Amino acid sequence: MAKSVSKNQLAPGISRLSRSKAFAKRAAYKIAKVVPKPKAEAAAAKKAAPKRKGGKPHSDLVAALTYRKSDMYPANVLTAPKAGRKALRSPKLRQSITPGTVLILLAGRFRGKRVVFLKQLKSGLLLVTGPFKINGVPLRRVNQAYAIATSTKVDLAGLAVDA
């Protein structure tokens, strides 16, 4: 005779509910854990607590299952932000890239365009320009991974690159 399958199982050994669904259905996480009190404290608590009349015998369980924490928390309990572990340093600039070097862009809207390198920004990105009047490339920030340096240099003597 074959094994009978209960309503909670699809086949012998295969549950209808997943492990997490079964856990949620039992609501075991909502039931407060009872820590046994020492006998002296338990006796004092019995004397002090007034007796209830009527009520369901499992009302403590219902209270534990329906208990909801308050959404209000004290405002002065704030954790301090964690200190950064690494100092922010801009990546090293490739040796072949110096101010005035002509670069070829490899990605983005202006891929394949030749641009002039002006300076490296604090973030590590390269500040480049077309110049705009010549080839339509405005001042742009470019990651040096997406640029190839050429041997051509442009003289930037009269150019002030600030901020």
Task: Reconstruct the topology from this structure.
Blueprint: E1 9-11, E2 14-15, H1 19-26, H2 39-48, H3 59-66, E3 101-105, E4 114-120, E5 126-129, H4 132-135, E6 140-142, E7 147-153
Antiparallel strand pairs: 1-2, 3-4, 3-7, 4-5, 5-6
Detailed description of the structure:
- The protein is α+β, with helices and mostly antiparallel strands and 163 residues long.
- 18% of the residues lie in helices and 19% in strands.
- The chain is built from four helices and seven strands, in the order ββαααβββαββ.
- The protein has helices at 19-26, 39-48, 59-66, 132-135, and strands at 9-11, 14-15, 101-105, 114-120, 126-129, 140-142, 147-153.
- The strands form two sheets. It has a five-stranded antiparallel sheet, with no helix packed on it. A two-stranded antiparallel sheet has the order 1-2.
- It is elongated.
- The mean pLDDT is 81.
Quick one: overall form? elongated
Radius of gyration: 36 Å
Order of neighbouring strands in the sheet with most strands: 6-5-4-3-7
Number of contiguous helices: 4
Structural class comes to alpha+beta
Strands, count:
7
Secondary-structure element order, N to C: EEHHHEEEHEE
List keywords for this structure.
alpha+beta, 5-stranded antiparallel β-sheet, 19% strand, single chain
Could you provide a short overview of the structure?
It is built from four helices and seven strands, in the order ββαααβββαββ.
